[in-house]
Write a structure and sequence with these properties.
308 residues, alpha/beta, Quinone Oxidoreductase, Chain A, domain 1, Rossmann fold, 2 domains
């Protein structure tokens, strides 16, 4: 019988419990996927805790998860580009499950040199990074400052921006500076005094700023950016964005960018430059422990649940 992890009430990680699910039938433009791994994201534990209930309530019981990698098990009547047995990855709701339905436009074939765990941890961060760079209009020859460059989204934003021909300065913990340097970015220690360190690292200034850290950096970022507040964007805090006149992107515009984001990541993979750092995978049954680990913070790799 297919299985999933769900919560029937808001609360701590302990509310995550195993549950059975029916075998879903795909719509014409969908496929049914036997999930092999699912990514774990901050939104998952924010929804579970109830802290998002006022703005993003979910029907209870709710199966979390929004990204996965797995094997196509069945295809809808309108699907001709995939067939059972194909290995795919992408975004879909209710990914903490052994079976799910995914829309065709949010899927890509998983290449053999992209392992199932990295593939499962890629889609949501890729979509957020791609969306942010598109909304900022980052172009070749510009200098982009990324706050939180060591995290999952920041890591891909750095790689996407470099591939577009931009120069990148990234604030991050010193333990990930070597990785950022290897990617081609200029790492800067975050914390007090960061504006002076960024100014030293980018003496000609920065054109745009992306914040994925959620730290109190937007005021100084607006002052640093040559484009002013219009070219400072945060994915972390709409309140801080409003306070400083910066931009906020929460992905709710309705413009679907998942496919383009996955294509951008796959281009890096083909070039041999894609890096997706992982924390150790947790079995699906240990989803609560994965949430505890994520909420504790300080991770340098993506959290992933495995069904294998």
């Amino acid at each position: 019988m297919p299985e999933a992890i769900a919560f029937a009430a808001y609360g701590g990680p302990e509310v995550l419990r195993p549950t059975g699910i029916d075998i879903p039938e795909p719509d014409p433009d969908q496929v049914r996927v036997a999930v092999r791994a699912a990514g774990v994201n901050p939104l998952d534990w924010k929804l579970r805790s109830g802290s998002m209930a006022a703005v993003m309530p979910v029907p209870l019981p709710h199966i979390p998860g929004s990204e996965f990698a797995g094997t196509v098990e069945a295809v809808g009547d309108g699907v001709s580009s995939l067939e059972p047995g194909d290995e795919v990855f992408g975004q879909a709701p209710h990914a903490y499950a052994t079976l799910l339905l995914a829309d065709l436009d949010k899927l890509r074939l998983r290449p053999g040199d992209l392992d199932v765990h990295r593939a499962a941890g890629l889609p949501s961060a890729a979509e957020a990074a791609h969306r942010a760079l598109e909304e900022l209009g980052v172009a070749a020859g510009e200098t982009l400052l990324v706050h939180g460059a060591g995290g999952a989204v920041g890591n891909l934003a750095v790689q996407f921006a470099l591939a577009r021909g931009a120069q990148v300065v990234g604030t991050a913990a010193e333990r990930v500076h070597q990785r950022l340097s290897r990617l081609g970015a200029t790492p800067v220690r975050y914390g007090e005094g960061w504006p002076e360190r960024v100014a030293a690292a980018a003496p000609h200034g920065v054109d745009a700023v992306l914040d994925v850290s959620g730290a109190d950096v937007l005021g100084d970022s607006v002052r640093l950016a040559r484009g002013g507040a219009a070219r400072v964007l945060t994915l972390a805090s709409p309140q801080a964005a409003q306070e400083h006149g910066a931009r906020f992107s929460g992905g709710g515009s309705g413009l679907q960018r998942t496919g383009a984001a996955l294509d951008e990541a796959l281009a890096l993979l083909r070039n041999g430059t894609l890096e997706v750092p992982l924390h150790r995978p947790f079995p699906l049954a240990e989803a609560a422990e994965a949430h505890r680990t994520g909420e504790a913070g300080g991770l340098d790799g993506k959290l992933v649940l495995t069904m294998e």
